[in-house]
Design goal:
The complex is a heterodimer. Helices cover 63% and strands 7% of the residues of chain A. Chain A is α/β, with parallel strands linked by helices. Among the domains of chain A are: 168 residues, Rossmann fold (3-Layer(aba) Sandwich); 94 residues, Helix Hairpins, CATH 1.10.287; 190 residues, no CATH class. In chain A, helix 12 packs antiparallel against helix 14, helix 19 runs antiparallel to helix 28 and helix 28 runs antiparallel to helix 30. By secondary structure, chain B is of the alpha+beta class. A 5-stranded antiparallel sheet of chain B has the order 4-3-2-1-5. In chain B, a hairpin with a 2-residue loop joins strand 3 and strand 4. Chain B is globular, with a radius of gyration of 12 Å. The chains are: A alpha/beta, B alpha+beta. Chains A and B meet through helix 3, helix 10, helix 11, helix 15 and strand 9 of A and helix 2, strand 2 and strand 4 of B.
């Protein structure tokens, strides 16, 4: 034997929710996303590890129910399997749910590739009184059959041993059981197979041609991607399908499905014994569901659970967020003290550190929020919540699964956009992503507090509440517009497996949190650093400013006076004036003045424009910008003080102020959210669309507020 | 297919019933007779065990009656009524 490690590529294939991802993680002894929720694996994941001197490359294919080319997930899996990139297929089956799990297996068998079968969740199956004759299974399926319980790590070594043993069997010696079809169907398949064989006499072997023939007869465009002229085959397939359907009164798909399920029932009657009434095993799940999915109590309970989740997220998150804030301050102060004053100092402290600090503070909220999401997903409640809300969401062209991301948007749009991943239909996912920025995230709240305090004193609460109402109404309206007019593609009906309730495993919840935190820090960190540098540069340059008066001289003159309250006040006033003039002449100020004509119909001036532009980088910056721009007795933390409120109330009418609030609520998503949208839609086009779409809606609604407001008053 | 299933299907066909999955009452069991859905929905449903001759039962309705949960081949599946209305069944 040579010392070089021998490499085997193993592809994991199985239904969604069969414990495939858990097995993937446990086998590689590290982790990736898991959930008791169909379709968590979105892209292909690979892991490499060693077992008994073999190097194993494990590929986690998306969870699929069959090998047709109907959904993107199925296409990815099928392409991978057809190209025979894997040395061994590892088919994971839910031992407690074999009728359905084996359907995919019947299609895998026809590939004629070396396959190992893992009967997973065997512990759950045993509780239901199910026992399997493994030797018979092995011989009937033509590959080793191993029992596993991935969550508990049981049977995994045995499984890897079997995979390695199977990989050593030469391809020619692999014997897979053919599924026997109805005589007429079989003769059609053979006819098509011959034609395919004539087209590719050398490149495709018996298994491959039969596989193609079966897929073609199943109404699948299986030859797409092959480069020969195969139109005569397509024509033949059409004729055969027509004849069969006429003589049998059933569609070809149904005939194939019958043969497959016939095989499955035959197999199970020989290898499976069930000692407990199968209805019993739903008992616990049924009991929990009769409460959580109750016709009257279901929705209130759901709302209560959501409310608890948000309450907990924000009240628990405040504590570590406070620590982080102090930590960032402490580090900033220390580094600031170490460095000499200058541009580099300002760039680092006012630019990068201030920007990153503002974002890192949200990390605890994200961790806690994703703890709950992972908990719901692991237990099976997330699937239920989609079920409960589907009808309501459907009215707006949304999918039941879009609810969780929307609610998360009230916290922060970035993780919310990321959470839209759980929606499998591309159209529904895109809509959920694009309307998310309309959900008023927590970072917009300070601006609402400032404005409603300044203009609507005793009605401040109602003014803020109205923002949340407008937020929801706009999001739903946008969903209707997008699904009707913008995003093409048929609506996918709601077809979803409801897994039984399961006790969540701690390590997969922890991993879920870790992964989201890592994603957040990496993605947002990158964008925020660049954004902060940019905005710092724009407001710090040009350095040489033609001031209208010599502030330095004036300050020195006043400083020379004796210490008094009046002296300090005029000093502050002078410094503020100088800062304001500097801001207005910086690139940022110049840009604000250049853009402000656009906002003139809304009654916004250049200062508002600068605040709006700065809010694009991060919404929480809006208040801080106002603090700098207005006469500015605001304290350092950016809180609205009496002075800022007074100054604002003199500069704007209440109507303009309300229009401003509406605009701030709805206009362009912040830079981090734009980055998240780009990442999730894999397109700068949709990210750009999101900006333009929300800007136009914000502008239109703000204009409506101004028009109606002036008409009333 | 077991003989009683064949009989149930045969009787229902004779009567010309047009009962669909969406007409089932809570707990009511039925055999699937026909899928009147388009190709891509059909192959999706077939892979989930919704196939002619399979046994289904209505398990639970969502608060507004749509979607609904059905028990099928040993697990539970949620379907919107728009699809359920196109699945012809024979209750037994």
């Amino acid at each position: 034997m040579s010392d070089a490690p021998r490499i085997i590529t193993v592809a994991l294939v199985g239904n969604p929710n069969c414990g495939k991802t858990t097995l993937f993680n446990k086998l590689a002894d590290t982790n990736a996303t898991v959930g008791n929720y169909p379709r968590v694996t979105v892209e292909l994941q690979e892991k490499h590890f060693e077992h008994n001197g073999w190097r194993i490359c494990l590929v986690d294919l998306p969870g699929i129910y069959s090998l047709t080319s109907k959904s993107p997930d199925e296409q990815i899996s099928r392409e991978f399997l057809r190209e025979e990139q894997a040395d061994v297929l590892l088919n994971i089956l839910d031992a407690a749910n074999l009728e359905r799990s084996l359907f995919l297996t019947t299609q895998l068998l026809e590939l004629g590739q070396s396959t190992v079968f893992a009967f997973n969740m065997i512990d759950e199956a045993k509780k239901q009184g199910i026992s399997l004759a493994l030797d018979d299974l092995s011989s009937m399926l033509g590959g080793p059959a191993i029992q596993t319980a991935a969550v508990k790590g049981k049977g995994l070594d045995l499984l890897l041993d079997a995979v390695i043993a199977q990989a050593q069997i030469p391809h020619e010696e692999i014997v897979t059981t053919p599924i026997s079809y109805d005589t007429h169907l079989e003769s059609s398949v053979v006819k098509i197979q011959d034609m395919v064989h004539k087209l590719y006499p050398d490149t495709l072997d018996h298994h491959q041609t039969r596989w193609l023939a079966i897929k073609l007869m199943e109404g699948d465009d299986a030859l797409q991607g092959y480069d020969n002229d195969y139109s005569h085959i397509i024509e033949m397939v059409r004729r055969e399908r027509y004849d069969l359907e006429r003589s049998h009164g059933d569609s070809c798909e149904t005939m194939f499905a019958h043969a497959r399920f016939g095989f499955i029932h035959g197999l199970l009657s020989e290898v499976r014994t069930v000692s407990i009434d199968p209805l019993k095993h739903f008992e616990l799940t049924s009991k929990i569901d009769s409460l959580l999915l109750h016709r009257l109590l279901g929705l209130p309970l759901f709302l209560l659970i959501m409310w608890t989740m948000f309450k907990a997220t924000f009240s628990l998150g405040n504590i570590p967020a406070g620590w982080i804030e102090h930590g960032v301050e402490w580090i900033t102060d220390h580094i600031s003290a170490l460095m000499s004053k200058g541009l580099l100092h300002d760039l680092l402290i006012d630019g990068i550190f201030a920007g990153m600090g503002a974002v890192v503070v949200f990390l605890p909220y994200i961790l806690i929020l994703f703890f709950f999401i992972a908990l719901f997903s692991e237990t099976g409640y997330l699937a239920r919540s989609s079920f409960l809300l589907d009808r309501m969401m459907h009215t707006f062209g949304l999918h039941g699964k879009a609810f969780i991301p929307l609610v998360m948007g009230f916290g922060c749009n970035v993780p919310a956009v990321m959470a839209s991943r759980t929606i499998e239909s591309p159209k529904a996912r895109l809509i959920a992503i694009l309307i998310n920025p309309f959900m008023s995230c927590a970072q917009r709240l300070p601006a609402f507090i400032l404005f409603s305090g300044a203009f609507f004193a005793e009605y401040a609460g109602q003014a803020i509440f109205s923002m949340y109402m407008i937020s929801i109404v706009t999001a739903m309206g946008a969903a209707v517009i997008l699904s009707r007019f913008v995003i093409r593609g048929g609506t996918e009906s709601f077809v979803m497996e409801l897994p039984p309730y399961r006790v969540p495993s701690i390590d997969s919840i922890l991993f879920h949190m870790w992964e989201k935190a890592y994603d957040f820090v990496r993605m947002v960190g990158g964008v925020i650093v660049i954004g902060s540098i940019l905005i710092w540069f724009l407001q710090a340059f040009p350095q040489e400013i033609d001031y209208s008066q010599d502030y330095q001289q004036a300050i020195t003159r006043i400083e020379a006076q004796s210490e008094s309250a009046q002296r300090n006040e005029s000093l502050t006033n002078l410094r503020t004036q100088q800062e304001l003039e500097r801001m207005s002449k910086s690139y940022l100020g110049q840009a604000g003045q250049a853009i402000s004509p656009i906002f003139a119909p809304l009654g916004f001036d250049w200062k508002d424009t600068v605040a709006i532009v700065s809010g694009f980088f991060a919404k929480e910056v809006v208040v801080a910008s106002y603090a700098v721009l207005y006469t500015n007795n605001a304290d350092e933390s950016g809180n609205a003080s009496e002075g800022l409120r007074n100054a604002l109330s003199q500069a704007m009418t209440p109507v303009t102020a309300f229009a401003m609030m509406v605009f701030l609520l709805l206009y362009a998503p912040c830079l981090s959210t734009v980055a998240a949208i780009k990442r999730e839609t894999k397109s700068w086009g949709w990210a750009g669309f999101s900006i333009l779409f929300s800007l136009s809606i914000a502008y239109l609604l703000a204009f409506a507020v101004v028009t109606v407001g002036h008409w009333i008053i | 297919m077991k003989t009683w299933k064949k009989k149930t299907l045969h009787k229902a066909k004779k009567r010309g019933d047009n009962v669909t999955l969406a007409d089932l009452k809570q707990g009511e069991k039925a055999l699937i007779m026909d899928l009147k859905v388009d190709n891509s929905d059909a192959s999706r449903l077939v892979a989930l065990g919704i196939v002619k001759g399979a046994e289904v039962a209505l398990d639970k309705k969502a608060p507004m009656g749509d979607p609904r949960i059905y028990s099928v081949v040993g697990y539970r599946l949620a379907l919107r009524n728009d699809i359920a209305q196109r699945i012809v069944v024979a209750p037994f």
